[in-house]
Amino acid sequence: MINIKDLTITYSYGDPFHIPFLSFAKGEVTSIIGKNGCGKTTLLRTIAGMLPYSGSIRIGEKECREYRGMDRSKKTAYLPQMIKAVNMDVRTLVEHGRYPWHGNYRRLSAEDKAYVSEALTITGMNEYRDRDLTELSGGQLRRAYLSMIIAQHAEMILLDEPTTFMDIESQELFYRIARQLAAKGCGVIMTCHNIEQGFSFSDRIVIMEDRCVKKTGTPKELVGEKEEFRKMFGAAVKESKDAESLYPYVLIK
Q1: Which of 70, 139, 187, 199 qualifies as a cystine partner to 100, CB 3.0-4.6 A?
Q2: How many structural domains does the chain have?
C-alpha cells in the first residue's frame, strides 16, 4: 500500500508539483493517464525514491525517505521508459533483480533461481534466456527488463510507459501479465498514453493534468466524464458492446 499526503515536488523551473492525497493498493492495477509533461513520470520517480519531496509518501509501514536502497527495492520496483540494450544475456539481466535480497557477495539461492525462472516464464522470455540483449527487438528488450522487475519480487511495481516499442500482441501479453501480478497480490502502477488500454485493463485510473491529479476512480466511475476527457485529450472513452472490439473500452470523438 502506498499513501501520499500533501506531496510537493519543487522543480528547478515552473510551478511546484502538489498532490493533496493519493493512494495505491496492492492487488490492483492502476493506470496514470495524462498528456506529456503533466507529471506522470515525476510522480513515479518520486515514489521510487529517486527525487526529493516534502510531505508524505508512506510505503507500507514507513515513510519512503526512511528506507535504505535495498530495503526500498524490496517494497518498490521501478522500470523507466528508456532502457538500454547492454552487452549481457537475458538470464543475467533477470538475475540482477534478486540483488536486493542477496547483495553483492551471495550466490543465487535455489529460491532466487526459482524467482528468475518464474519471471522468464511469465513474460514468455524463457526461450530467449541465453540471448544477448543487443540481439533482441525493442519489445523483447522491454519484456526482458520486465522479467528482471518481476524477479525483484517487490510489493509494488512502477512502470513508466511499459508498452513502448511493443507490437499489439506483445502489448496484450503485457497487460495479461499485469493482471496476473495483481492477482498474486502485487500492486502495479503504470503510466499510460493509450486511454482505451488503461481503462480496459486497470482497476483504478488516475488522471493528471498540469502537475496535479484531476480525477481518480474506477473505469466505470470515470467513463461518463466524456466532456472532461474531450477538453483534456481531444477524445473521450466509452464501454464497447461490440464483440469484435479489441478492448472493452474504446475511444470516441
Answers
A1: 70
A2: 1
- pTM reported for the whole predicted model: 0.91
**Beta pairing, strands 29-33 & 76-79:** unpaired
Backbone angles phi, psi at 153, to 5 degrees: 60, 45
Helix and strand counts by DSSP (H, E) for the chain: 10, 12
47 vs 209: CA distance, rounded Å: 18
Please give the average pLDDT of every successive group of 10 residues along the chain, which has 253 residues.
92 78 96 88 92 92 86 91 91 92 77 94 94 92 94 95 84 90 95 90 93 91 91 90 87 89
Q: What is the CATH number of the domain that holds 8?
A: 3.40.50.300
The range of the structural domain enclosing residue 67 comes to: 2-252
C-alpha cell at 26: 496492492
Task: Please tell me the distance from the alpha carbon of residue 219 to that of residue 222, in angstroms, as a whole number.
Answer: 5
Mind giving me the DSSP string for 96-158?
GGGHHHHTTTPPP-HHHHHHHHHHHHHTT-GGGTTSBGGGS-HHHHHHHHHHHHHHHT-SEEE
